[in-house]
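*Target chain*
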Amino acid sequence: MTSVWKPIIGLEIHAELETHSKMFSACPVVLEGEPNTAVDAVTLGLPGTLPVINARAIEMATMVGLALHCDIPPLNQFARKSYFYPDLPKGYQISQYDRPLAINGYLDIEVTPEKGEPYSKRIRIRRAHLEEDTGKLTHVDAAHSLVDYNRAGVPLLEIVTEPDINSAEEAEAFVRQLRAILQYLGVNSGDMSKGVLRAEPNISVMRSDDSAFRTRTEVKNLNSIRSVFRSINYEVQRQIKLHESGEGVKQATVGWDENKQKTFIQRYKERADEYRYFPEPDLPIVEMSRAYVADVRARLPELPDAKRERFVSALGLSRYDAGVLVAEQAVAHYYEDVLAAGADAKAAANWIIGSLFALMNKAGFEREQIAQTKITPQHLAALIKLVEAGTLNKGTGMTVLETMWQSGDAPEKIVAEKGLAQVSDKSAIAATVAQVLRENEALARDYLNGKDKLFMALVGACMKALRGQGNAQIVREVLSEQLEALRDV
């Protein structure tokens, strides 16, 4: 029955902006300090305080809006969003409502589903608006909670998509792509584990013959891409079961239990009119001149899509390899540093994606931690050049890379200390091959009698005798010559 249902998903992404001070006061932004040490009178909503707009936050938000192909209206305005919760000291949040900073944008994503072919899709961006973040609650038990207001007042950009997403795979691709854009712009670290980037999927399902969307639920404050993927898949199946049982879905805010891998009802959803939005009386309307917007646009850095296209057109990489390299800004920077140290572009891509990533995965490193490994871009470039020059073969190169991972030493030092240089001297290889053929006379005879597949077994025996350091091409050439000589005997 599930085949007749289609997921309908919109995303709300909350990105804290990396300004030095908070959205409406000079209080410094301190994300990991002792609780309630980065607060001031404005943050705590004390009587007699007035907010002042952070100009740098406006600039950063404009950068994001332009990167998402949004229109920047000439006027945007802040509003009061009233609700009462312990993490909101004023009893209201200063946000934007009917006059957001950016509207009508889009983001193109590349989707690689578990089944089927990869495809591209355009996800429309409804709006991106500025607001202040709330405090952070830590629930001790059923009756007690602790509140930390350090995060309260931090500039927060909320990006809202249209309900154009139809699978957990598409949602994952969107969050990854948006996260990369925020990192490239330098406005957000992308570290979801620290809460600076949070995703909230709005999820419903519909049948192919439905004429309107069905009731949706919103999964709150997801702090990992894995949780986005898993919570959507769970919630979609939960809603399908409710509809098929005749019970139906109630509009609600739900949480995600990572341990139980299931959603749970937090509260039934408020309507917009319950927030009692009205224009913030203590802040002016913000005028966005066309000259200002043009200036911000001119200062945008190279973004992931543009970098990927450059890697393809200028460096000759495949679209897949280029996409992997630009997905994390740290990886893209590392790759370009390897190139700057003199490595071949395609070889560098292969070593990073195929070999270095494998070592990182085994050690539990995330890709954005590539600069924290002991293998510097300069040392990786030196290793690549040793392999390309024939000093090392690929197998020995991997052995050297593994040693570099542990020690951080330069490849030249490791090769010298362990005597790992590739043997390319033809006379030395010829002597070894002759010895191998004497020791494997029956194998050589079978090969000469027509069992061609045994050639690679003989190659393997020769490479083993050379301790894996033989030049494979020369080994094959010499082996062929000596076998043909035996044929003529």
Summary: Residues 441 and 447 are 10 Å apart (CA to CA). The chain has a mean pLDDT of 93. The chain has 15 helices and 15 strands. The longest helix spans residues 225-245.
